[in-house]
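Q: What does the assembly look like in three dimensions?
Context provided by user:
Components: three
Sequences:
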Amino acid sequence: MIAEVIVDVPAKQTDRPFDYVIPQSLETVIQIGMRVVVPFGPRRIQGFVIGIKPQSTLNKLKKIIEPLDLTPVLSESLISLGNWLSEETLSYRISAYQAMLPAALKAKYQKKLQVSTESKHLLPQTLQDLFTNQDSILWEEAKETGYLSLLQQEVTKGHILIIYEVKDKIKKKKRLAIRSALSTEELKAYQSSLTPRAQKQHDVIKYFIANNDWIFLTDLTATLQISNAVVKELVKKEVLEESEREIYRDPYENRYFARTEPLLLTNEQQEAIDPIHDRIAKSLHEVFLLYGVTGSGKTEVYLQSIQKVLERGQEAICLVPEISLTPQMVHRFKGRFGNQVAVMHSGLSAGEKYDEWRKVQRGEVKVVVGARSAVFAPFENLGLIIIDEEHETSYKQEENPKYHAKDVAIKRGKQGSFPVILGSATPSLESFARAKKGVYTLLSLPKRMNNQDLPQVDIVDMREELRSGNRSMFSSSLLEKLQLRLEKKEQTVLFLNKRGYSSFVMCRDCGYVVNCPNCDISLTYHRHQQQMKCHYCGYEDHVPSVCPECQSDHIRYFGTGTQKVEEELHKVLPEARVIRMDVDTTSKKGSHERLLNEFQKGHADILLGTQMIAKGLDFPNITLVGVLSADTMLHLPDFRSSEKTFQLLTQVSGRAGRHQLPGEVVIQTYSPEHYSIELAAEQNYDQFYEREMMIRKGLKYPPFYFITLITVSHEQLMKALDVTEKITTFLTSRLTKSAICLGPVASPIPRINNRYRYQCLIKYKREPELNQSLKKILDQYQQEVTSTSLKISVDVNPFILM
DNA sequence: AGCACGCCGACT
DNA sequence: GTCGGCGTGCTC
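A: Here is the predicted structure of the complete assembly.
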């Protein structure tokens, strides 16, 4: 039989199946969806079997070397989903398949030089020394010895072989398990033959007479209070046998989740859930937009919908944005569905991710809660996909394949004929517009659960503060309220919006800003290392003490980091206990949850943080939320900046007063009259939607138009510009009249790592030929892409326009 | 992506 | 006359 294999070479020319003979011995083993090792040119590489057929049109085929899996890692439906994904995102099929699997399944390649014992003595002395203790050395190491040409001579003589190894990236975690090697009768006989002094052995035998199953060595020694030696001795005597047993790493091991029962739904929740339950029962595909204000009980709707799916013997996926940020969410799912839940998020190690994935693959769990890539969970009988906080940008992957989890979810929903729920308090304009058009079904939860009032929001004009002589980062109003909370022993959350607002070094005399020499952006100041770093290429430099332009020593850093805010806080409120949450304090595993726990227990008065504290916090004692700089991302070159600002502010404000105590919110801003800030303060989504839609319509942006962004980069500015120009001309000629092709324009970051970047932005309504045209472009420049430094990136529905 | 093959300049 | 530079094209 012949296998069609997609090989692990992400390139245009290899983005198609290659035929291989399945050797007789593997005919019953090799299945569609398995990873295999195949010879490819002189190398050995990994590939995916995507088809099996009796014959090939070619006649001199190579053989599959070996399978890498015992069971397929991709089902046929996931393979076709992968093909769709590569088609939609214009990426390679191999990249699409790999994006659907845990990283642990990506192959690791090693090139080695190997010498056989017979030919070892034939080598020149210098080379023999290299192989004294080993039969092979890594190619990389060989390069460093400087004997590479000498070694290559031996390769041609046939004394040394070049071998290519394909390995899995991680090892399976194993533990030693023990069981009896004898029958119960034999054990009893052995027991009676023991001397009375061998008490411990006696205990072990007694245990195995009662239990003849496998037990982990560690568990056995712990329960019987014995040492390993006792067991090892019995293994040696062949009374017991041992075996390496594969185990799962459970990130939530030893954690207790209080069991919860379905809550009684409010009338509104019931009305929202009815149509969902109906489509689940009828196995109908439909997309629901669940639009519910913060605290309206969306999660309970999710949980009870999943319940329904499980009762029908189907499985469900719930996507949440970066789940490690919301341990509370995990608690709710584990509490309701116990060990039927697998959790997948970026906080897990590669091994843990792999283990969670395998629980799904083996059918040991029925529910997955996870970040973006969990949308590919290998369930075979899916009944529901939920996307919580559907407006979140983290659902879009910025690397190839540049997919949006929402599109994948809907595709799977259509294929499997089941509903998809998109939930948000601040839906993306795209989704809300679709709901209004009837493409999605709108379900609303307009009221908070306990009818709590929305918090009182104050907008503080920081320009006024400055005029009245307050140069600190806290307005007098915020400071006053902070003091009041300290007295009343209530908690405050301070939110610093850092995105698009990094600390940079500027000369106060001449305005010189320290820039990266390779990229056209300013270097970011890193306080703890006293260094300047470029976030795009990694360039590092010292902080200058005098201005390189005008020699003035009035050069200092600008921008507000959480550390600086913390210092200021200590100055003005020395008695306040502050917990700071940012990338520095949460980089260690589990530290995120630990800090939140401390805050919840009341070990601090103020929680100070960035983006990451905007979601999921639901603590009864928080009565004040302060937003230190509401408008920093309003001025980014992004047509979604108003939308993002509105969503973020609404989100943050929702943190206050979720329980008995009423909440207050202070928003500090330099543009208090901006509609996204004013309307976020009122929590007025509907009016924001209307305003923003008007603007989008005028500017021909989504949801009125689709957009696709092409970015061309090259070491030479002229080349990048020239190619972009040609692409723009080509596209303009092939698109319909209603499409707009903007370009070539310099990218908002015109140079990264010494590569100049130009873009072409396409806005269109309906362009069925677009994908075809884009493929043509990629084909056209394929040669230049491989031979010169030209790079062309295509992003269909981009979220970042840089 | 790698790697071999192949055609030109700088050395023993 | 050979070593090694990297342009070109292929990998079942």
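Follow-up: The radius of gyration of chain A is 31 Å.
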